[in-house]
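Comment thread on ticket #2218

A.B. wrote:
> Attaching the input chain for the structure job we discussed in standup.
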Amino acid sequence: MLPTYGLRRVNSGRPWLQNFRRSSIFSSAIQDAEESQFDKPKPKTQSYFPKRGQTLELVCESLAFKGKGLCKVADTGFVVLCDRALPGERFLGRVTRKKGNYAEVSKVETISPHWDIVDAPCEYASTCGGCKTQNLLYEAQVRAKEQQVRELVIHVGKFSEKDPEFSSIMKPIVRCDIQFHYRNKMEFSFATKKWLPKELLHEKEDGASAYALGLHAPGFFDKVLNVNKCFLQSEPANAVLAAIQECWRDPQLGLSPYDVHSHDGFLKHLVLRTGRDVKTGLPELMVNFVTSSYKPELLKPLVQKISTIPEVVSIVNNINTSVGSTSVGEQEYVLHGKSTITEILRGLAFQISANSFFQTNTWQAEVLYKLIEDCADLRGDGSEIVLDLFCGTGTIGLTLSRRVRHVYGYEVVPQAVSDARRNAKLNGICNATFVEGDLNKIGENFGKDFPKPDVVISDPNRPGMHMKLIKFLLKLKAPRIVYVSCNPATCARDLDYLCHGVVEQNIQGCYKLKSLQPVDMFPHTPHIECVCLLELC
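C.D. wrote:
> Ran it. Output below, let me know if you need it in another format.
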């Protein structure tokens, strides 16, 4: 169980932010949410606080948000978080830093293993930051995620578990039936320095043999763990990755990885996207080389090699001349085949370009969107208006459009809005309007360009909804809000605002939380999706 400390007020120059703050345990995982302190703790002696560099024997009790193991110091109950510690594991941990009323430790040695231990199938599981819980039984993973959401709803959302309706509001987590090879997009990085674990540092290599293509080692922006196969992406994508790994270091090809320090080099990223052919349902693959300049002759040998893989229908080259690590280019060139691939979701076809946003687990997105549609509780007579906030490429709104009068979608990313309009046209949908706009900067006139909605769908990114949008929704008073969240902490905060109001601003909540459904979209990772239904009181 997570600690049951309550919340206390923190003086702030911006009063509304007092409710925005939350338990330090959860804020450690969500830097976008400002920290708060625990309830007034009991008086502490100097020994209550572990010192930096001190080694402690600890037992992991549960998983906190972002997958860190939650432990308590013996005798004092002081809270300690440790990356890669799993429930039941007894270990030695060295304190690396203190932060408010908790500390972080790094694992030095495991004394006895965790509960529900299984063998991780991936050889990189112990070092890669992508799948931290592969060696934890899947049933234990989803139990921990469900518990995290429950604790956040209680401690951050201020919903009482003593409420007779609480047990019916909190739904059991929806498992993911496909637990490997579920991602339709993976982004790998090229690097001049291959990251090696401590036990292999003596094998350090020089020149091209030290180059890496893979995933960034946790905590390093300039070192990459070389990966030959990833258990998250599709098998055709792994075939492409293996083919490129076989030859890209060949000195005769003249290819060099980008150096993040000197800003020299050519190859920056390799982005692999998997879709499905609309007619056959067979997989089709897009390969995107992100480079620092446009030199197609250098990529030609790689293009020739991977274009022989049957599933590869698109090879593009994004040119990114900036010194940053983004994989989005300023220009894009098609080197082979098509400029887009397609994917099928809820019976609709979606064109996906190299930089389009699309749900990265298509299989589980079908489940997620069905839950959203169920929560929307549409009459199906074509009379209702849906307001789709943070609509991205329009996938949610378009899947609902067949049962409503009109969908109005708002999104800040221009490319996403363009994709949404194109996807509406592709599917012959005429009752959907997509507008480019920043929902964090809405003014007094927002809401005058569309009729009052019957249902609001809000699917914000990790920081959640801005207070301006919260105020707008409380004033709008739509009969139903379906809140879709990828961050349970900011979700719980926003549910508190919508249901309980903001006392410091004399704002009253006007919604009742009817259901909250956690969904495991990404097995073996700490990420959790939630679908929440709110009804007007």
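A.B. wrote:
> Thanks. Noting for the ticket: The chain has eleven helices and 21 strands.
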